[in-house]
Amino acid sequence: MRSVAGEVFLLQLAVVVLLVAAAVVALVVQARSAGMVDARHRTLAAAGTFAESPGIVAALRSPHPSAALQPSAEAARKIAGVDGINVYTLSGVTLAHSDPRQIGKHVVGPFSKAAAGQSFTETFEGSLGQSVVSVVPVKDSDGRVIAIVSSPVTVQNVQSMVNRQLPVVLGSAAAVLALSAGGTALVSRRLLRRTHGLGPAEMTRMYEHHDAVLHAVREGVLIIGGGGRLLLANDEARRLLRLPVDAEGLTVTDLGLEEGIAEPIASGRSATDELHMATDRLLSVNIRPTAPYGQAGTVVTLRDTTELRALSGRAEVARERLKLLYDAGVRVGTTLNVERTAEELAEVAVPRFADVVTVDLLDPVLRGEEPTEASTEMRRTAAVGLQGDHPLYPVGELIRFVPTSPMAAGLADGRAVLEADLRVTHGWRTQDPANALRILDRGIHSLIAVPLRARGVVLGMAGYWRGQDSPPFDEEDVSFAEELTARAALAVDNARRYTREHTMAVTLQRSLLPRGVPEQSAVEVAHRYLAAQAGVGGDWFDVIPLPGTRVALVVGDVVGHGLHAAATMGRLRTAVYNFSTLDLPPDELLSHLDELVAHIDTDEQEWQGITGATCLCAIYDPVSGQVTAATAGHPGPALVRPDGTVSLPEVPISPPLGLGEGLPMETMTVTLPEGSRLALFTDGLIESRDRDPDAGLAALRAALAGPARTPEETCTAVIDAMLPTRPSDDVALLVARTRRLDPARIAEWDVRPDPAAVSPVRNACARRLADWGLEEIAFTTELILSELMTNAIRYGTEPIRVRLLYDRSLICEVSDGSSTSPHLRRAEATDEGGRGLFLVAQFAERWGTRYTARGKIIWSEQALLDGAAPPAMDLGEALLAGWDDEGF
Questions:
Q1: Global pTM?
Q2: Is 442 helix (H, G, I), strand (E, B) or coil?
């Protein structure tokens, strides 16, 4: 009922009901009016007929008129169908009546007109109710009125006749109403289909929109039906296509359109923003099918883009420039490499802005330094867009631009220089006249030279060249080139600063990492260090010779990258080396290192944060073949035995450095056969983003497996198998193959705690030195051993033992069970002793003390040159050196 069809149905039904009701009322009123008229005519006819009937005068003049008249009057009443035929004398006496009881009574009525000889009919209220009565006079032969005849009919009787007709009237009205409602419903249903159930407001809005589309919309609209017939065209479409007035109903091919616009309109295919010419206008055409929204066909919209063509071209250029700037922000400066950043600037601008782009940078910029002053001497760093034997300077060439060149002018003014047409300008040709002609011959005709400036410092120049069919540069291009170059200059400056910092960090790291492996006889060593992709890291390794032909193998890792990691690595490496000079076991060495890292964290926590560092220290003794290892949060070593089997000894792992909180470190001791290989490494070798540590250890075991490999070959095999590409974290790898000291070069004696026992041992040592061919240093060796044994007997405890080790140097060791350490000092003039250690220091190349689990060892080393000792210091000079001039 909310639709237009529903409202029309209700309105039509109401009209039909009103019409039928009016007709029924009119019929009833008319029937009642006709009944009253009929009653008047009937009563008048009945009264007149009885008054003129023959014998009525004789009956009136008979002795008993009522007896003669009453039967005749009753018979006449029934025949006439009236309520009564009454006869009255002129005096009002009733002679005959429909009610015999009224005969003889005197009545008063409106009979004066009848007494005067007139007949009349009127309505009155009688004993029978409201009635219609007709009165007719009875005249004799002489024309005198002798009596009066009246014939009444009650209104009720008249209405009863009408009421008998009322069912027929109402039935007919109901039938008419039903037929009318059915017809109205059929019409409304058809209207519902035609209006698609739309309501009045929607229909109004639809027709308003229809009128707007036809007359107000400034976009052409065509509706094409089946067979390519034009069904509708709005005013704008008529204007754009210049359609005739009677265009609607014609086929598209009959509209007189140009073939270029008629073909797509008549094709029926879908199209989006296709450009077609219609007369002198460039139209944007969109075509869509009307199904399922209407009958099969298409709707075509036309938009005049003639005036917008030039604006859209400029807008497209601006859009492309914005996209180019965006791409430059994404693509330039991705590597923090100065040369690559310059190449990225050239690559992003060719060919979208220029045909050829060259980038020239100052030499200090390439080294990571900040230029101190602007210079016209630059190095060609990037050139993109050149093909074949090009005339421009090649990459890598040092160019000194002349003052008249655009590059020098831009450098001097600090702004871009535009050479719109190189063919008509001559200043740039003075750089190289012959080459300038070659440039013009290659079709290059326009140039913009823009300084690469960042933070107020000129880093170089960018040259944008156009040639062939490209249009020359204009002022808008200059603004864009400056914006593009300014963004690239920041990336170049960032790369330059990174290069400087990276160079500093690499220099620092290289100065802190070991430059080579010291000479020693305990192990054969090979090593690898691979920097991470992020640059400088904190991994390190060390091979530290120790007294007694022993060697310390150290590998460590400082978390992070950069200067701080490298500096921390250097501090830890120096600390490890210094702690090693104290001849500490691995656990004590790492304990001291843990305290140092904790101290570093305390000093630097406010600005740098907590240092993350791990370390593995292993000491190998070639005399016993034992290796003692301790680790602070670091992976343990891998052991490759001479037969090629690989194992991972379980080294008790302590917390990383700085987190030990003073707890003691634990060690592992294992005896290795000669020719075993120890592999010490950092976690970057076995861990990566796509490999967990367990898989890395399995791969390491597979890479290490196999006998008869040198440490160098082992390092190569491990790196090739584990790190085919540059690692994401630093990697340090140290491989050491163990050696054993020849037992023939080891001599040991027990010494009784008696000064008399010194001489026999000293003589035995001299004989052993003679066996080794070291007679030339026998005297100084006896002197050193005499002093050391005497001190051990005097100040130490049992057991006292002497050992000689013949390696790259001669090592004398005197051990005892005391932990008291001797100290070298200059004796006073009045001292009777205290000069023995001074003599040891004078004759030995090095000497020192190391502690063991059962005491201490005092050792000394004497250098050997081609199997012989250097000329010894005169004994007298050595003794005199113990006093100064004031001692005499």
A1: 0.56
A2: coil
